[in-house]
Amino acid sequence: MNDDLPSTSKKGQGKRQNGQAQNHSHSTTDVTQFAYSITDNPPWHLCIFLGIQHYLTALGGLVAVPLILSKDLCLQHDPLTQSYLISTIFFVSGICTLLQVLLGVRLPILQGGTSAFVAPSLAMLSLPAWKCPEWTLNATQVNVSSPEFIEEWQKRIRELQGAIMVASCVQITVGFSGLIGFLMRFIGPLTIAPTISLVALPLFDSAGSDAGIHWGISAMTIFLIVLFSQYLKNIPVPVPVYGQVKKCHVSKLYLFQIFPVLLALSISWIICYVLTVTNVFPSASSAYGYLARTDTKGDVLSQAPWFRIPYPGQWGVPTISLAGVFGIIAGVISSMVESVGDYHACARLVGAPPPPKHAINRGIGIEGIGCLLAGAWGTGNGTTSYSQNIAALGITRYVDMNSSRNLFVFGFSIYCGLTIPNWVNKNPEQIQTGIIQLDQVIQVLLTTGMFVGGFLGFVLDNTIPGSQEERGLIAWNQIREDSEDTLKVSEVYNFPFGIGTRFCAASWLWRIPFWPKPEHGGKVMRREHGLNE
After folding, report:
1. Of 72, 240, 253, 401, whose Cβ has the fewest other Cβ atoms within 10 Å?
2. Quick check: 450 and 195 in contact, CB under 8 A?
3. Model confidence over 378-420: pLDDT tens digits?
4. Residue 345 belongs to some domain of the structure
5. Last residue of a domain, which of 368, 399, 430?
6. Which domain holds residue 354?
7. Which residues have CB under 8 Å from 254's CB, separation 6+?
8. Are 58 and 120 in contact (CB under 8 A)?
9. What is the rounded CA–CA span in Å between residue 85 and residue 81?
10. What burial class does residue 40 get, using C-beta atoms within 10 Å of its C-beta: 0-12 exposed, 13-18 middle, 19+ buried?
11. 471: which DSSP letter?
C-alpha cells in the first residue's frame, strides 16, 4: 500500500477546494466532503475494493430484475435458468457501464437493469396470450430439461428481446440526434419527479416480500448501512500502511465513509453463515427464515458451470409484437427522463458541474446502445442509470413546493400513476375496443404507473398557467447555463484520450449534437487552435 489515503491527500483536498469554488451552480450548503473528487485517481488497490462495493450495492437491484420476471417467464421452479439470466444481466451491465463512463456522460454512474422496463414487461406478460400454462406452475409437474418447458419460457424472453431491441432504437435516435436536449426546455422537475418516483413504487411489494424472508437479518443490514454511512462516516480508523517514504506506519482512513455497504453486507453474510452452520436457521424449506441460510442454493452451485460467457441470441431469434414494442417504448421514455435527473443528481453529489446538453445527448444515446445490447444478449430487461431515489430528492428542490399549482401537479400525477394501473389490472375488460392489438397497447401503457404519472405531469405542467420561476424552469435552465460557462466541464464531460481537443477537433464536428461544443470547455479548444475568445 502507499501513502495516498483519502484522509491525508493534500492534493485531493486542493482539487476539491478548487472544484467547489468553480462550481457556482451548487449551493455551498450542499457541498459534502469527498474522499476523492471526480478528477482524482485513487490508488489501484483502493479502486478494487471500491469496485467491489459498487458491485455489492448494485447486486440486489441486478438480481431482483430476473427474479421478478421469472414468475411471468414460467421460471419460478427453475433456479438454474434464473442463474443464467442473472449472469447475463451482470455481464451486459458491466459492458454498458464501461461504455457510459468512457464514451457516454462520463460521470461515475453505474448502468444496470431498470425497473422502468419491469413494469411494461410484466404488463405484456400478463396478457392472456402470454400467461403461463397451469402445468408450469406446479413444481411436481415441471421437467425443467424437457424441450416443451424450454420452449415455453424461451418464447417469452424472445418476445421481450425483440421489443427491447426495437424500443432501444428510439432511445439511440433521441440521444444522438440531440432531440433530448431540445425536449429539455419542456421537461421540467414536475415531469421528472413523478416519473422517477413511480419507477420503483410498484415494486415495493416485491421488495417487502424479499426483505420478509427474514426481517431480523434485513433490519440488521439496513441498520448497519445507516450506522456506517451516516453516523460513523466522519470517524477515522487507524490502519497500518506501507509507503515508499514512511515505510511501515499507521495512517487514518475514513473506512466507514468509503465502504459502508461492503462492511454491512459482509457482516450480515458472516452472521448468516454462522447461524447456518450452527443450525439456528431452520433446515425445513417450508419454515420461516429458511431462505436466510447461506446454503439454500447449494444444488444450483453444483449444477451451474464455473465459467459461462453469455452471447447474443443465446435464447433464439427475437420476435416482435406491437403491444410489446409500445410498452417497452413507454419504459424507454420513462428511463430517459429518469436518467436526465440522475445525471444532474450524480454531478451534484460528486461536485461536478451540471452536465451540458452534449453530454446528456451522448449519455442517453449510449444508454440506448446499452438497451440494444441487453436485448440482443437476452437479459429480459434494458439498462439505465442507477440512482432513482437520489435524483428524485435533488430535482424536486428546484421547484417551489409551497405553490398550490405545483402541489396539485405533483400529487395528482402520483395519485393517478398508482390508481389507474391498479384499476386497469382489476378491470381489463372495461378498456376493450374490439381491436386486439390496440387493446394490448392500451393495457400495457395504462398499467405502467411511471408512464401514466410522467405523462400527466408533462401535460399538466405545460398547460396549467404558472410562471417559469414557479415551475422551477428558471433554476433548471440556470443550472444548465452555468454548466456551459464552467471551465471544469472540459475535464469531466469531454471525450477521453484528448479526442476533440488534441485531435479530431475540426470545427465542423462541433455541429454534431453529442460532440463537445466550443462553449463546452471551448476556452481550452480556442486556445489550442489560436482562436479568439
Report:
1. 240
2. yes
3. 998 888 887 543 433 344 457 666 677 887 888 888 878 888 8
4. yes
5. 399
6. 43-213+289-399
7. 6, 7, 35, 233, 234, 235, 236, 237
8. no
9. 6
10. middle
11. T
The total of structural domains in the chain comes to 2
Residue 114 and residue 381 in contact, taking contact as beta carbons nearer than 8 Å: yes
Which region, left, alpha or beta, applies to residue 501 given φ > 0 means left and ψ of -120 to 50 means alpha?
A: alpha
pLDDT of 371 above 90? yes
- In one-letter notation, the amino acid at residue 87 is S
- Burial class of residue 258 in the structure, from the number of CB atoms within 10 Å of its CB (0-12 exposed, 13-18 middle, 19+ buried): buried
Which cell numbers hold the place of 317? 431469434
pLDDT digits (tens, 9 = 90+) for 214-257: 888 988 988 898 888 778 878 888 877 766 667 677 778 778 87
| E-strand stretches of 290-359 | none
Instruction: Report whether 387 contacts 344 (CB < 8 A).
Output: no
pLDDT digits (tens, 9 = 90+) for 448-471: 777 888 888 888 888 888 887 877
In a domain, 518, yes or no: yes
Indicate the length of the chain as a whole number. 533
φ, ψ (nearest 5 deg) of residue 242: -125, 125
Strands 384-385 and 247-253: unpaired
**Residue pair 488/26 in contact by the 8 Å Cβ criterion:** no
Which of these three, 367, 399, 431, is where a domain ends?
399
* Contact (Cβ atoms closer than 8 angstroms) between residue 387 and residue 342: yes
Q: Across-strand partners of 237? A: 253
User: What is the pLDDT, as a whole number, of residue 261?
Assistant: 76
**Which residue type occupies 267?**
I
Query: In the predicted model, what is the mean pLDDT of the chain?
Result: 77
Cell of 81: 435458468
Helix axes 44-70, 204-211, angle to 10 degrees: 110
